[in-house]
């Protein structure tokens, strides 16, 4: 007939079994528990005995004609995890423990020590073996680095990576992607946070082409409230105080700005008294222009007019020979009134426009130098002694001295009849605009 037990005392059930099969049974005093069991079909005695003992973590062994029943021994086993972080697996391991089992976590060695019945320890061992693999434990996370160049952080992490760990950097965004096993990940994450803290450093940037005072305002877009900069105009330097990552960005900005290509500009200047070559040599002699500078004479130039750029043609100028003798002295200094280039052209004075291409930092010095030249303090009247002949011959002789093309002399055309006048004696004339 079917055998059924419902929360029956384990010792009572064992006594019943012993009487039923007429076998000697020795039950250890520490054996205890309850049995809930239904056997609907005939079952071998030893199978039924093992079923009720297993429910209560007990075991039996046969010695001669005696069956000895005892508690299963509590075993202890250490699990040193290679890839998983032991602290994250401990809660799951505890779900496998019997009432008599327990676990202990050793974070320093990433080890879990389990004490329990043999079968429970075997279950826990299988669970750990399944999860403690590189594939199951590889974690990935992106970190935005604020105060250090990301490549420097990556180099510091290299010594702490496991064989499976990798670091990928994005220098433009200053971010890194960390792939690492769970066991090392927490340690590396803490290391990154400890490295990425604000520490002010000072760096001096000496500019070769750009003017420090001109580019320094652009640095404010990169600097935080704790940062700052100073300008040393004398040495053309910018002294910046900031974190290493910001200093690296600023260096990149200044490197892109402090080049001849980025700093060369064109400025158009009027020349009232000197020719372009003379003015250029004068500037070059004073070392006002850089080795990258160049110039050209133009017959048109751009002017700003009502918010737009308009190209203005430069009127062709001629050398004019005065009809009267102004003085009879060999040289005389003449004060020259300063006027704008447009006024000069309107008065039909000889004005040449020169376009100078040079570094921005030099254009102000060039402008001041040309203004000084155009003030005319060094301009004199100079007397030329020419053999007698027509005024035309005199004009041609002067043009030859000054290096002027005859076609640029007004009056040589057929209608300039006055130029054909004969001068019977040795005479002199003057031309304003020759430097001493």
UniProtKB/TrEMBL annotation:
GO terms for cellular component: membrane; type II protein secretion system complex. Coiled coil: none annotated. The keyword Membrane applies. Keywords: Membrane, Signal. InterPro entries: Bact_Secretion_Sys_Channel, NolW-like, NolW-like_sf. It is found in: Membrane. It holds the Pfam family Secretin_N. This is NolW-like domain-containing protein. GO terms for biological process: protein secretion. Residues 77-137 form the NolW-like domain.
């Amino acid at each position: 007939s079917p055998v059924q037990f419902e929360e029956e005392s384990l010792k009572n059930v064992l006594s019943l079994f012993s009487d039923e099969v007429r076998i000697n049974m020795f039950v250890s005093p520490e054996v205890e528990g309850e049995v809930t069991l239904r056997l609907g079909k005939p079952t071998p005695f030893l199978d039924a005995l093992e079923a009720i003992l297993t429910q209560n973590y007990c075991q039996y062994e046969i010695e001669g004609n005696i069956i000895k029943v005892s508690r299963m021994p509590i075993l202890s086993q250490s699990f040193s995890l290679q890839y998983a972080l032991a602290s994250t697996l401990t809660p799951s391991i505890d779900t496998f423990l019997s009432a008599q089992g327990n676990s202990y976590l050793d974070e320093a060695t990433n080890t879990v020590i389990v004490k329990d019945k043999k079968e429970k320890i075997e279950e826990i061992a299988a669970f750990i073996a399944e999860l403690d693999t590189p594939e199951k434990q590889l974690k990935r996370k992106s970190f935005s680095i604020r105060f250090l160049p990301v490549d420097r952080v990556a180099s510091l992490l290299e010594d702490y990576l496991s064989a499976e760990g990798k670091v990928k950097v994005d220098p433009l965004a200053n971010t890194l992607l960390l792939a690492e096993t769970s066991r090392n990940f927490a340690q590396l994450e803490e290391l990154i946070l400890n490295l990425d803290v604000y520490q002010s450093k000072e760096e001096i940037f000496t500019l070769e082409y750009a003017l420090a005072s001109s580019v320094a305002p652009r640095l404010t877009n990169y600097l935080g409230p704790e940062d700052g900069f100073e300008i040393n105009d004398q040495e053309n330097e910018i002294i910046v105080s900031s974190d290493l990552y910001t200093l690296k960005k600023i260096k990149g900005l200044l490197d892109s700005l402090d080049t001849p290509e980025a700093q060369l500009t064109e400025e158009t200047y009027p020349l009232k008294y000197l020719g372009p070559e003379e003015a250029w040599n004068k500037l070059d002699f004073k070392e006002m222009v850089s080795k990258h500078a160049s110039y050209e004479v133009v017959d048109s130039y751009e002017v700003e007019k009502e918010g737009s750029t308009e190209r203005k043609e430069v009127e062709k100028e001629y050398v004019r020979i005065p009809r009267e003798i102004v003085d009879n002295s060999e040289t005389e200094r003449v004060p020259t009134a300063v006027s704008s280039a447009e006024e000069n052209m309107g008065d039909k004075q000889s004005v040449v426009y020169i376009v100078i291409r040079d570094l921005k930092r030099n254009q102000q010095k060039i402008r001041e130098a040309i203004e000084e030249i155009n003030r005319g303090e060094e301009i004199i009247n100079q007397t030329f002694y020419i053999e007698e002949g027509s005024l035309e011959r005199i004009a041609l002789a002067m043009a030859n001295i000054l290096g002027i093309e005859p076609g640029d002399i007004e009056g040589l055309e057929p209608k300039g009849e006055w130029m054909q006048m004969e001068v019977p004696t040795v005479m002199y004339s003057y031309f304003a605009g020759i430097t001493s």
